[in-house]
């Protein structure tokens, strides 16, 4: 068996994955800023993290995943004030919507979703440690991280910080590319802003400190995996490393994984700023199926490649999901067996190769195509069909898009058995009644010398 290899942004290379604690993976994922509905590009990143989580679980690891909810940040403060609401009142609707969207896309829940506003004490304590160790300074009542005091600054983003201007600093939470400046840890209160009274003064946290404080609280000072979108690399993750490692003197995170952007149909990065984004809710109201959206976002491209989001992509995803459903129906078995060995190995190896789901799905469809030929020629044995079904279940542990007809199967099998019994006692009227009943369910029977086979057909019009 090959080892699980993951691309580490820190080294720029594929590395064998070895967790700090044998058998247990501790992972932190930057969560949503709950000032609006998350857009579909955000969900590409959350689905990549769901893929990673599922692969780790399928590899047999126990996973402790923490995803923060950023509920205090420039835009939230501004919008809450505009609505005359507290932060909690304003963010509640978007937190609720976020979890609904996770369920719609079948994104598995993390173990914890800590909120920034509930960890002010931890953030202040961390800033105090940084202050004691000489990594901060105060200007106009705000506390800043002095990045020249942390020589490793810029390693994750591979930035050149030699031209760094001493004392150049930035107050906004999210700032421009490749512009390393001293960033704010604690912001002095502005008129009209919700604030907290702390030993650092009256104010509120900068954006970056929350992820250091909450990840280390729940996962320890050093943990295995930190994920996000590529636009988190700088400044956010660079700042997280500086805050955490300057405070503890330890390596903060072993593996940094980042998902590439989702692009619009003309190849622009989808973003709130460009207003070229779509929300999940928009897509659902246009009639797209959640399973197709999920499938498109996880298989459309490898997570480290940009993916162009288009109606064609969704259409192709929809038909791929239907083909998987149909395959499950044609196999007509519960899959109570071991997955077919060869395809399982190819599937697992592709996923262990930096989560190459597009390749894994390619192998799966080759297998399905070949197996369909065997089914059509009647060569597939019951054991082979059970193995194929077990493989489909194995794949679906990652994909989570197939609707297995097992509940229907059981009902169909029962009716077929009743029909067989009726035929044996020469009650042909009853046997035909059952045949008609099945036809209304969209099931067509075919009596062969090996017994009765069935397949799904469009139900007759009433
Ligand atoms: Zn973060």
Describe the structure.
It is built from 14 helices and 16 strands. 40% of the residues are buried. The strands form five sheets. Strands 5, 6, 7, 8, 9 and 10 form a six-stranded mixed β-sheet that branches. The longest helix has 21 residues, at 311-331. The protein is elongated and about 95 Å long. The protein starts with a strand and ends in a 6-residue tail after the last strand. It has helices spanning 40-58, 74-82, 87-104, 120-132, 209-219, 233-248, 280-285, 290-299, 311-331, 341-352, 357-376, 382-399, 406-424, 428-440, and strands at 5-8, 13-16, 24-29, 62-67, 136-139, 142-145, 169-170, 182-188, 196-198, 201-205, 223-229, 253-259, 262-263, 307-308, 443-448, 451-456. α2 (74-82) packs across α3 (87-104) and α4 (120-132) crosses α5. It is of the alpha/beta class and 462 residues long.
Instruction: Work out the helix count.
Output: 14
The topology string of helices and strands comes to EEEHEHHHEEEEEEHEHEEHHEHHHHHHEE
Rg measurement, Å: 27 Å
Shape: elongated
């Amino acid at each position: 068996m090959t080892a699980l290899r993951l691309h580490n942004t820190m080294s720029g290379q594929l590395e064998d994955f070895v967790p700090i604690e044998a058998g247990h993976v501790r992972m932190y994922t930057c969560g949503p800023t709950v000032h609006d509905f998350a857009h579909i590009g955000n969900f590409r990143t959350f689905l990549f993290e769901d893929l990673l989580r599922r692969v780790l679980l399928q590899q047999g690891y126990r996973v402790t995943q923490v995803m923060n909810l950023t509920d205090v940040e420039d835009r939230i403060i501004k919008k809450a004030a505009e609505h005359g609401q507290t932060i909690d009142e304003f963010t509640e609707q978007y937190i609720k919507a976020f979890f609904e969207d996770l369920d719609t896309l079948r994104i598995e829940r993390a173990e914890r979703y800590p909120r920034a506003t509930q960890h002010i004490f931890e953030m202040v304590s961390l800033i105090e440690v940084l202050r004691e160790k000489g990594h901060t300074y105060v200007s106009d009542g705000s506390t800043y991280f002095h990045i020249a005091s942390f020589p490793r600054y810029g390693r994750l983003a591979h930035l050149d910080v030699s031209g760094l201007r001493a004392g150049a600093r930035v107050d906004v939470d999210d700032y421009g590319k490749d512009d390393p400046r001293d960033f704010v840890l604690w912001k002095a209160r502005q008129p009209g802003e919700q604030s907290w009274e702390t030993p650092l003064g009256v104010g509120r946290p900068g954006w970056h400190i929350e992820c250091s404080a909450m990840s280390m609280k729940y996962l320890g000072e050093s943990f295995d995996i930190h994920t996000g979108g590529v636009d988190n690399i700088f400044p956010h993750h660079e700042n997280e490393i500086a805050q955490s490692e300057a405070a503890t003197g330890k390596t903060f995170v072993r593996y940094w994984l980042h998902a590439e952007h989702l692009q619009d149909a003309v190849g622009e990065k989808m973003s709130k700023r460009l207003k070229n984004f779509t929300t999940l809710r928009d897509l659902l109201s246009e009639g797209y199926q959640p399973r197709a959206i999920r499938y498109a976002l996880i298989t459309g491209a490898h997570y480290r490649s940009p993916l162009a989001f288009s109606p064609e992509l969704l259409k192709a995803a929809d038909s791929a999901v239907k083909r998987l459903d149909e395959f499950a129906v044609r196999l007509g078995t519960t899959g109570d067996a071991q997955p077919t060995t060869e395809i399982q190995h190819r599937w697992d190896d592709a996923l262990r190769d930096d989560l190459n789901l597009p390749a894994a799905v390619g192998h799966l469809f080759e297998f399905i195509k070949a197996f369909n030929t065997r089914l059509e020629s009647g060569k597939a044995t019951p054991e082979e069909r059970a193995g194929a079904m077990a493989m489909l279940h194995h794949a679906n542990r990652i994909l989570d898009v197939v609707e297995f007809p097992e509940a229907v199967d059981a009902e169909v099998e029962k009716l077929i058995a009743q029909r067989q019994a009726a035929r044996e006692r020469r009650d042909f009227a009853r046997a035909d009644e059952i045949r008609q009943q099945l036809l209304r369910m969209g099931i067509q029977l075919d009596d062969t010398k090996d017994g009765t086979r069935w397949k799904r057909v469009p139900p007759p019009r009433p």
